[in-house]
Every structure is written in structure tokens, then in C-alpha cells.
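Intended use. Records like the one below are meant for learning the mapping from a protein sequence to its folded structure. Do not use them to infer anything beyond what is encoded.
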Amino acid sequence: QVQLVESGGGLVQPGGSLRLSCTASGSSLDYFGIGWFRQAPGKQREGVSCIGSVSATYYAGSVKGRFTISRDYAKNTVYLQMNGLKPEDTGVYYCAAKPSPGPAEWIGPRGLQSRTYDYWGQGTQVTVSS
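Structure written out for the chain above:
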């Protein structure tokens, strides 16, 4: 069982930045692909970005060029750096994990689908407001 924990959310003004972290307690994330998702009030959860175990990445069009996903194997952590935040980025952000050693052919549109993943964190709130 993989237990994921997100952190780094908060309140930020439009144009600001936040860095979200996703860590796993008791498990190594080395052979997992990780996805970031968000859910705004009254809306469906949507995929934001994903990264494979060998660091291939993919982004939703709405965040491409503003968000960067990365992983630090030594810290067993996956990050989502969010720059140029907009009010429409507001929501609860979740990380999710999928066992995936080696090159991941699913890093692409499939990586932004909830059903791709086996494990989920509890989420961290991001609010973009002036």
C-alpha cells in the first residue's frame, strides 16, 4: 500500500507561485509514475500533469508553460511548481501514483485520466485570489 501526502497549498494572489510536494510514507516512489490532479468546487476532477519513473512528462493545455512537474529521487518527492497562477487554478490538488518501472507509454493523455492511477493522496487546497 502506498500512502501519498500532498503539501504546499495555500492562498496566493493572481500571478503568484506555489510549489506543491507529493511524498510517500513507507514506500519508494522510484518505480511509480505520478500524476497531479485538481478539483474545483462544483467541477469534475481534471488531470494537470504527470511524470513517469524515468521522468517523461506531460501537461494539460491549460497549465503548459506555467506549471512544471519534477521529481527528486533522493527525497522521494514529486513536485508541481506552479507559476503565473490564475483564479481558475483554484481547487484541491491531488497527487496519484501508478506502478510503472521503466519507460511509460502512458505518459500522455492517459496520464491525465483518474482511472490510470491506483493510489491517491488526500489533497491540498490551492486558492488564487486577490
